[in-house]
Design goal:
The chain is of the alpha/beta class and about 210 residues long. Helix content is about 45%, strand content about 15%. The chain contains nine helices and eight strands. The structure holds BIS(adenosine)-5'-pentaphosphate.
Length: about 210
C-alpha cells in the first residue's frame, strides 16, 4: 500500500508519519527530511536546496523527482508513505510513472493554526523529535526529553518564511486536492484535532494492517 500525506506546512504530516510507520511498517519517504540531511552534510544537492528552503520556496521538480526515484530503489517491495511529496502537479504526474498510489490523506488545517504551530515548534538536532513550546514543551527548556539533544528552531520557521511557505502551498500544492479528489483517492483528515485523534482518523481510512 502506497500512501501520500498532503497538507499545508505544519499540518502534522511528520507527526502522523511517525505513528503510521510504527503501525504499518511503511518506508517513510519525507522529501523535507532528506533535503535537511543533505543540507547538514553540505552535499551538492544540499547546497542547491538550502537557498530555496530558507526562503520557503520549492526545490525544482526535476531535482525532487530524481531524489525520490533514487530512494524508491531501496523500498524493496515495502509500502511507501510519502510525506511532503508530491507538492506540485508535475511531481504528482512524475510519481504516477513510478508507483501507484492507494490513498491520499489530506490533513486540513487553517492558516491561523499553521502559524501557531510552526512558530512554537522546536526540533531536536540529534533525533529529530518535535516539540511545541505551548502545547507540548520539553521538560527542560532547550533539551530533548528523548535523547538529551539540543532543540533548535528550523530556519524556515521564522515568521516571514512561514508566511511564504503557506503562500507557496496555496499556489502550488493546494491544486493537488482537486487532482486526487477527481481520481477518487483523496481522504480528508481533520488535522486540528489531537495527534491521537488524527492517527485514529488515518487508521480508519487505511484499515488495520494485514
Ligand atoms: P517539509 O519539511 O516537508 O515542510 P512542510 O511541508 O512545510 O512540513 P513541516 O515539516 O513544517 O510540517 P508537518 O506537516 O510535517 O508538521 P509536523 O508534524 O512537523 O519541507 C521543507 C522545505 O523543503 C519546503 O519548504 C521546500 O523548500 C523543501 N521541500 C520539501 N519537499 C519538497 C518537494 N516535494 N518539492 C519541493 N520542495 C520540497 O508538526 C508541526 C508542529 O505541530 C510540531 O511542533 C508538532 O509537534 C505539532 N503538531 C503536530 N500534530 C499536531 C496536532 N495534531 N495537534 C497539535 N500539534 C501538533
Amino acid at each position: 500500500m502506497n500512501v501520500i500525506l498532503l497538507g499545508p506546512p505544519g499540518a502534522g504530516k511528520g507527526t502522523l508519519a511517525e505513528r503510521l510507520v510504527e503501525r504499518y511498517g511503511f518506508l517513510h519517504l519525507s522529501t523535507g527530511d532528506i533535503l535537511r540531511e543533505e543540507v547538514a552534510k553540505g552535499s551538492k544537492l544540499g547546497k542547491l536546496a538550502k537557498g530555496y528552503m530558507e526562503k520557503g520556496e520549492l526545490v525544482p521538480d526535476d531535482v525532487i523527482l530524481e531524489m525520490v526515484r533514487e530512494r524508491l530503489r531501496a523500498a524493496d517491495g515495502k509500502g511507501v508513505l510519502f510525506d511532503g511529496f508530491p507538492r506540485t502537479l508535475a511531481q504528482a504526474k512524475g510519481l504516477e510513472e513510478i508507483v501507484s498510489v492507494d490513498h491520499v490523506l489530506f490533513l486540513e488545517l487553517s492558516r491561523e493554526e499553521v502559524v501557531r504551530r510552526l512558530s512554537a515548534r522546536r526540533v531536536c538536532r540529534k533525533c529529530g523529535a518535535n516539540y511545541n513550546l505551548i502545547t507540548n514543551p520539553p521538560k527542560v527548556p532547550g533539551v530533548c526529553d528523548r535523547c538529551g539533544g539540543e532543540l533548535y528552531q528550523r530556519p524556515d520557521d521564522r515568521p516571514e518564511v512561514i508566511a511564504r511557505r503557506y503562500e507557496v502551498y496555496q499556489r502550488d500544492s493546494a491544486p493537488l486536492v482537486d487532482y486526487y479528489s477527481r481520481r477518487g483517492l483523496l481522504r480528508r483528515i481533520d488535522a486540528s484535532r489531537s495527534p491521537e485523534e488524527v492517527f485514529r482518523q488515518a487508521v480508519e481510512v487505511l484499515g488495520e494492517p494485514i
